[in-house]
Amino acid sequence: MIGILFAFLGGAFITLQGVANARISQDIGTWQAATITQFTGFAAALLILLFVRDGKWQKFKQVKPIYLTGGAFAAIVISSNVTSIQRIGVTLTIAFVLIAQLGLTFLVDRNGWFGVAKTKMGLPQYIGIAMMITGVAILRF
């Protein structure tokens, strides 16, 4: 249940972040909005880390260098979402983001990429993806 709660919070905050970034971008620009977002996100994460102090900071050297680039993806996420929200609106942006996330995670799970255990996908999973795509097509009209 706690996993569902955190997923729900994550989804809600992605939407709020996208709307805020689109508004900031209108005033100062897309990359400036991405910079501010990255900086404030770093500051918030650092403060949480300082308060949590779970002792796992020492394991930083065990992380494969390729995975350390994950934070850089956020700049692309932010600029893409800002541009998309300005052009097609919040609802369609989030709908397409969810389809892209679901599609890629489907491939990651099915193929076992990035060290993830392979998951067998069946007809229900394919139907679920098709239903999401159909839902977005309906939203668009």
TrEMBL record:
Sequence intervals crossing the membrane:
32-52, 88-109, 121-139
| Keywords attached to this entry | Membrane, Transmembrane, Transmembrane helix
Quote the Pfam families the UniProt record gives. Answer: DMT_YdcZ (PF04657)
Q: What is the protein named? A: EamA-like transporter family protein
Q: What's the source species for this entry?
A: Paenibacillus anseongense
